Model the fold of this input.
Amino acid sequence: MPASTVAPFGRPGSVDASRMAALPAAMQREGALMLLDMGLSETSARRHLGLSASAFDRLVNVAPPLFRRGGETDAVSLS
Done:
């Protein structure tokens, strides 16, 4: 990240790629999304984590939801 760019919070180095594999899928996804929130491009984030483009895409777009409470659904009631 260029010196003139300030991330909204945190530093990419705080997401440790060597420890990510031991985390549950939802936490791995959260770490990847945090890198994107810190201002890294998708390419930079996946390189930081050592993932292929397809593995990063699966992690960010296909992984289980971050949080789910019992009885919750993604359906929206319009009534």
